[in-house]
Amino acid sequence: MKIKVNNKKELPSAVKRLLKYSGGSRIFALYGSLGAGKTTIIKEICKQLGASDLTSSPSFTLVNEYNTAGGESLYHIDFYRVNNTGEVFDFGLEEYLYGGSYCFMEWPDLIEELLPPDTIRVHITAGENEKRILDFT
What is the number of domains present in the chain? Predict the structure, then answer.
């Protein structure tokens, strides 16, 4: 499925469609070039899921945990600075992928073979200005 987003005002609607499409899957892998909007989309998803924390990119910490008002944990993982799959096992990737919580991942290429079969893969293509195309499977 593809969604065209012309500006940030359209992002909430696009994320609603993405969450509806996910059919209950809680693992999301976001692909796109630097500056494509991966973190921005994850922020909007977390907002719509009721995150009460401020969301930011976990580039230096690898994993950020946000909590919803209902006490549910949402995990945001950034693999940009990870050099090998051994590092992801060291921080317990399996617990995030199979623990039942929402998990949103940026730069998941390194761990592609480790992703569960029901992972929602979101490919983001940046256009001019704020335009984006979200292609998800």
Answer: 1
Residue range(s) defining the domain that contains residue 127: 2-136
For the entire predicted model, the pTM comes to 0.91
pLDDT for res 58: 60
Distance CA 19, CA 27 (A): 11
pLDDT at 97 exceeding the cut of 80: yes
Concatenated DSSP letters of 15-81: HHHHHHHTTT--EEEEE--TTSSHHHHHHHHHHHTTB-SPP---TTTSEEEEEBTTS-EEEEEE-TT
Distance CA 28, CA 17 (A): 14
Here the CATH number for the domain that contains residue 130 is 3.40.50.300
pLDDT classification of 15: cutoffs 50, 70, 90? very high
Question: What are the residues facing 103 on neighbouring strands?
Answer: 27, 75
